[in-house]
Amino acid sequence: MATRTLEADAAELGPTGRPRPVFADPGPLEAHGPARIVAVCNQKGGVGKTTTTINLGAALAEQGRRVLLVDFDPQGALSVGLGIQPHDIEATVYNLLMERGTTPHDVLIKTRVHGMDLMPSNIDLSGAEVQLVHEVGREYVLGSALEPVVADYDVIMIDCQPSLGLLTINALACAQGVLIPLECEYFAMRGVALLMETIDKVSRRLNPKLEIDGLLATMYDSRTLHTREVLANIVNGFGDKVFHTVINRTVRFPDATVAGEPITRFDSGSMGASYYRELAREVLERWRQTGDGRGG
Ligand SMILES: Nc1ncnc2c1ncn2[C@@H]1O[C@H](COP(=O)(O)OP(=O)(O)OP(=O)(O)O)[C@@H](O)[C@H]1O
Ligand SMILES: [Mg+2]
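That is the input. Now the predicted structure with adenosine-5'-triphosphate docked in place:
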């Protein structure tokens, strides 16, 4: 009998080892905007930044939020993941940052997801990092460029490149929240101290509104001991900042990228889609708790 009780208790714990709350659908917003700007950031490569930006964005759009995704990586993976071919793009975020006459509306593209728009990028953006160094107010160029459309959206998510250079600093300098994906692999925590230090410096020197929205464990595989250990380690280090929602490793994510669609459209009934829908509910609940109207 005692064993059964223990098993029942264990069943209520989520993969992060904490009791898993139920996150309800928040219901529609009465009015839209101004957007909460969220930088999806980790200087470690391949941890799920772009996958999270696309799929969380699409899941938030399903919740009736108006979403703008900004591809802020010269590799253009976010654009490709939404079916936009970099060589087809006339105006990109690069033009928006560097050319006076370019407005956000010249750059915006509607995606196939209702309510979700994209500002695409391609390799041109790699030039901006160098050119921006000479600008006055070089950390605020992205923030100023986005200003005219902040009122049109509920959420603007910026997919950062795997570096802590000037482009990423621009994203942090205009964001209210940072979302940090961490891959459940050995060395997941390597570099996180530097990332935290950078976020702390930006919030002290450039942007006092900046806060950490949460750390997201990605590519989790409950069958392997080491991913369970890595996740336990992450929770140990960051406690409540770690989202209860954990993204499992599944080949459907790369498949969806190849198809140029979020998983919520590519395979709407899949587990992968349900993880990001759950994350959207959790994120909205966190925003609501911090008094941010976008939570609903
Ligand atoms: N949960 C997952 N399960 C399996 N594969 C995943 C998962 N999340 C992402 N991937 C795959 O891992 C690779 C890296 O993911 P992604 O591009 O999202 O990472 P990133 O942090 O944006 O990388 P970069 O630092 O290069 O920008 C991609 O091929 C993606 O399809
Ligand atoms: Mg990426």
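Residues 1-10 have pLDDT under 50 and may be disordered.
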